[in-house]
TrEMBL record:
Keywords: Hydrolase, Protease. This is Serine protease. InterPro entries: Chloro_Bact_Ser_Proteases (IPR051201), Peptidase_S1_PA (IPR009003), Peptidase_S1C (IPR001940), Sel1-like (IPR006597), TPR-like_helical_dom_sf (IPR011990). The lineage of its organism: Bacteria, Pseudomonadati, Pseudomonadota, Gammaproteobacteria, Aeromonadales. PROSITE patterns: PROKAR_LIPOPROTEIN. GO terms for molecular function: serine-type endopeptidase activity. GO terms for biological process: proteolysis. It comes from Oceanisphaera psychrotolerans. It holds the Pfam family Trypsin_2. SUPFAM superfamilies: HCP-like (SSF81901), Trypsin-like serine proteases (SSF50494).
């Protein structure tokens, strides 16, 4: 045992021998934990936790029951202790306990206690006590919601529609670069786009991710041409549908929120000949606007597609196709320029079905 560990252990022994109160017991537990003695730490924390006015000690006991550290793993006991802390209304530990209960009921510690309504309630109580991370957890607990909208009453002046649409919708379309871990380090394997549909999630094309890798985007916080570390956003792939060529991404950073668009136009209301706009990253050029018309409505392998003359090329996949009012018509998926300008987007009805499954 090194000198520091020995001193911490002696400190814990002295505090134990003095028969001191909850605070001394807690400090003894903390010292034992630093010394690597989980059994002794648990015993001290449990003694301190018997005092109802010591939520921090109760929280530590709950943590150790949940992890099976210093005692047998017991999720039921962990829940019981976390509930005591949650009900204490302590400004620091009560929201943390609600958060932990939410994670347990979300199924993070096994399906035995899976209860999504209970998880939602715990995250809500946590968020009400000022924990912004719990607001994110509450949103992510339910599938993204897409809103069907009728046309706006005010039309843009002639020649202004594209300008207005770009200003409103471009911030919600992100360039995505997928990196693979190779011997030489991270190497880009594909480039595409994604459209954010709520503050934390985005839709993209599955084919960009099918080889694996880490999706990354750049969100510059200022006009500086240089990319800073703070501008880099990493995503998790949480759901895919190869048949529809769709994937759902979640932003890794809990401290960030996305500009998003969730207003859609159903497939049955899309009309051949109507003007449309695509926003994506063709050839890696982020937030590029192109325009065209709906040239056909098709079904391929049971998937509804919007065919358009708006150019879609490498880097545009996973981007957004909008109508003149700025409503989402589809997720751009592929373009064929070899025999003409044939471009396709997966209809938003397919996206809704994908999110609901």
């Amino acid at each position: 045992m090194d000198r520091i560990s020995l001193l911490l252990t002696l400190c814990a022994l002295l505090l134990t021998g003095c028969g001191l109160g909850g605070d001394a017991r807690y400090q003894a537990g903390y010292a034992a934990r630093l010394a690597g003695d989980d059994d002794r730490a648990f015993a001290h924390y449990q003694e301190a936790a018997r005092s109802n006015d010591y939520p921090e000690a109760q929280y530590r006991v709950a943590e150790m029951f949940l992890a099976g550290r210093g005692t047998s793993q017991d999720t039921g006991q962990a829940i019981s202790w976390f509930r005591q802390v949650a009900e204490s209304r302590d400004p620091v530990w009560s929201p943390q306990a609600h958060r932990q209960l939410g994670l347990i009921y979300r199924g993070d510690h096994g399906r035995a206690y899976l209860d999504r309504p209970a998880a939602a309630e715990q995250f809500r109580l946590c968020a009400e006590q000022g924990e912004t991370a719990c607001t994110r957890l509450l949103v992510l607990l339910t599938p993204p919601s897409l809103q069907v909208s009728s046309a706006s009453v005010e039309a843009s002046p002639p020649g202004q529609a594209a300008v207005d649409l770009y200003a409103r919708r471009a911030p919600s379309v992100y360039k995505i670069v997928v990196y693979a871990q190779l011997d030489a380090g991270l190497e880009p394997t594909s480039v595409g786009s994604a459209i954010a549909i709520d503050p934390y999630r985005a839709i993209t094309s599955y084919h960009l991710l099918q080889a694996g890798g880490i999706p990354v985007s750049i969100d510059r916080r200022n006009d500086n041409e240089y990319v800073r570390e703070a501008d880099v956003q990493q995503w998790q792939v949480v759901k895919v549908d190869p048949r529809r060529d769709l994937a759902l991404l979640v932003l890794d950073d809990p401290g960030r929120q996305l500009s998003f668009t969730n207003t859609i136009k159903p497939y049955e209301r899309v009309r051949v000949g109507e003007k449309v706009f695509a926003i994506g990253a063709p050839a890696g050029l982020e937030k590029t606007l192109t325009e065209g018309i709906v040239s056909a409505l098709r079904t391929e392998n049971g998937v509804r597609l919007v065919q358009t003359t708006a150019p879609i090329s490498y880097g545009s996949s996973g981007g957004a196709l909008f109508d003149a009012e700025g409503r989402l018509l589809g997720i751009t998926t592929k373009g064929v320029q070899a025999w003409g300008n044939f471009n396709f987007a997966v209809a938003m009805d397919e996206v809704q079905a994908f999110l609901a499954e």
